[in-house]
Amino acid sequence: MKSHPPIQFPSQFLWGAATSAYQIEGAHDVDGRAPSIWDSFAKTPGRVVNGDNGDIACDSYRRVEEDVALLKQMGARAYRFSIAWPRVMPHGRGEVNPLGIAYYKRLVSLLRDAGIAPMATLYHWDLPQALHDEGGWMNRRTAQDFAAFAAVMFDALGESVPFWFTVNEPWCASFLSHAIGEHAPGEKDLNRAVTVAHHLLLGHGLAMTEFRKRKLGGQIGMAPNVDWREPYSQDPEDIAACERGLDWFNRWFIDPIYHGRYPAAMAARYAELGIRAPIEDGDMATISQHPDMLGINYYTGSFAKAPANPLPLRPGDSPQRQMDALRNLDTVNVPGFAKTHIDWPIFPEGFTKVLTWLRDEYGNPPVFITENGACDNTQVGHDGQVHDALRVEYMHRHVIALHRAIRSGCDIRGYMAWSLLDNFEWAYGYGKRFGLIHVDFGTQQRTPKDSFHWYSQLIANNGCAA
Ligand code: PNW
């Protein structure tokens, strides 16, 4: 039944769902795929909860027809997936593996036959181990290798993929991976994280150059994760603290792209720690080539205020303490804030705020929500269904928040729910479920959850109840 619900989206709005290669494909040693840093990391004892890894995951490499059929059943108009670099170029550079390319060609043609627009991410964290052995993202050359891999994919799929994202969540691939140590390769050095961040941005820019050279019809951009810090009071000190938080997490990656420079105040704070991005001549011009769109991943945010006890910037401190000192803010846990099953506060107001902030900060760029969703671990019940009420409520509130941002003039073109399937949730392994579809990792049986049916209705009506 078509209805006209109160929350109505623009007619061309692109609804879809997202996944990433290592989290769903499995088939880790099939058809010439070589290991990535995530294979090595997950197989190092103590790194991933329960010793889980992506060897099998959702077996989507073999079940790709079934997964595209589920997308079609849901009514998705787009599907955001990522391309595994070590499947396509097992050594990271040089030789191209035709079987790797063939898999993505097949996926793309299945999607197109189903009327679903393919949206490809080139780097969702699975750096070929062979490149890591030579220094990985610490190595400036890796940015060039990434662009060469991107070029191979543009040549293979450029005519049939309308939307491209270069790097997914550069904050995670640098700080979470090289300073906090929770993601592969699991290092704890802030100086290295800043270097890696710069090389990821450079890789993005060099891939942009390859894309532009080919004069393809599609669109390209980066997909950073953003969060929101809402001042706990209008005290200028609290406002300044939130600005530092935004500098540290959001602007560090988005300013270079849209303004051709790192945020000056935060760069000065890093300099006090003796840390500088390794910028060479021409880098910022390469990085700031005008992208067609911005992908935004949003999950959570918080209220924050100036710290009761400001931390000094001290080069000798642990990376965690240095990062706390750079931000120099206290998160305020507002009573009554619910959390998802991964303990992230549910803050849909922050979604509207960060989107209007992006509008004002970067000249209202076209935005695709490349990820938004909730961890809700509800399992299959006695009735054979999955009543994931928390996820439905989370999505409903975030869709309303998104609509509010569109009404206030933000140029938002689409929304990709994270995630199509329960999958390998990085350092949490299979214990944290983000899927609209439940996956039994023993049998690989897929069961659409209540959220899948709810989302499917939303797509059919191009809107929802207020
Ligand atoms: C994102 N953090 O990861 C990723 O793009 C997805 O692959 C992932 O499954 C999804 O969000 C849910 O986690 C993040 O600790 C992982 O701040 C960790 C963090 C943020 C994002």
From TrEMBL:
<dbReference type="InterPro" id="IPR018120">
    <property type="entry name" value="Glyco_hydro_1_AS"/>
</dbReference>
<dbReference type="GO" id="GO:0030245">
    <property type="term" value="P:cellulose catabolic process"/>
</dbReference>
<feature type="binding site">
    <location>
        <position position="23"/>
    </location>
    <ligand>
        <name>substrate</name>
    </ligand>
</feature>
<feature type="active site" description="Nucleophile">
    <location>
        <position position="371"/>
    </location>
</feature>
<dbReference type="InterPro" id="IPR001360">
    <property type="entry name" value="Glyco_hydro_1"/>
</dbReference>
<dbReference type="GO" id="GO:0008422">
    <property type="term" value="F:beta-glucosidase activity"/>
</dbReference>
<feature type="binding site">
    <location>
        <position position="418"/>
    </location>
    <ligand>
        <name>substrate</name>
    </ligand>
</feature>
<feature type="binding site">
    <location>
        <position position="124"/>
    </location>
    <ligand>
        <name>substrate</name>
    </ligand>
</feature>
<feature type="binding site">
    <location>
        <begin position="425"/>
        <end position="426"/>
    </location>
    <ligand>
        <name>substrate</name>
    </ligand>
</feature>
<keyword id="KW-0119">Carbohydrate metabolism</keyword>
<keyword id="KW-0378">Hydrolase</keyword>
<keyword id="KW-0624">Polysaccharide degradation</keyword>
<dbReference type="InterPro" id="IPR033132">
    <property type="entry name" value="GH_1_N_CS"/>
</dbReference>
<dbReference type="InterPro" id="IPR017736">
    <property type="entry name" value="Glyco_hydro_1_beta-glucosidase"/>
</dbReference>
<dbReference type="Pfam" id="PF00232">
    <property type="entry name" value="Glyco_hydro_1"/>
</dbReference>
<keyword id="KW-0136">Cellulose degradation</keyword>
<feature type="binding site">
    <location>
        <position position="168"/>
    </location>
    <ligand>
        <name>substrate</name>
    </ligand>
</feature>
<keyword id="KW-0326">Glycosidase</keyword>
<feature type="active site" description="Proton donor">
    <location>
        <position position="169"/>
    </location>
</feature>
<dbReference type="GO" id="GO:0005829">
    <property type="term" value="C:cytosol"/>
</dbReference>
<feature type="binding site">
    <location>
        <position position="299"/>
    </location>
    <ligand>
        <name>substrate</name>
    </ligand>
</feature>
<comment type="similarity">
    <text>Belongs to the glycosyl hydrolase 1 family.</text>
</comment>
<protein>
    <recommendedName>
        <fullName>Beta-glucosidase</fullName>
        <ecNumber>3.2.1.21</ecNumber>
    </recommendedName>
</protein>
<dbReference type="InterPro" id="IPR017853">
    <property type="entry name" value="GH"/>
</dbReference>
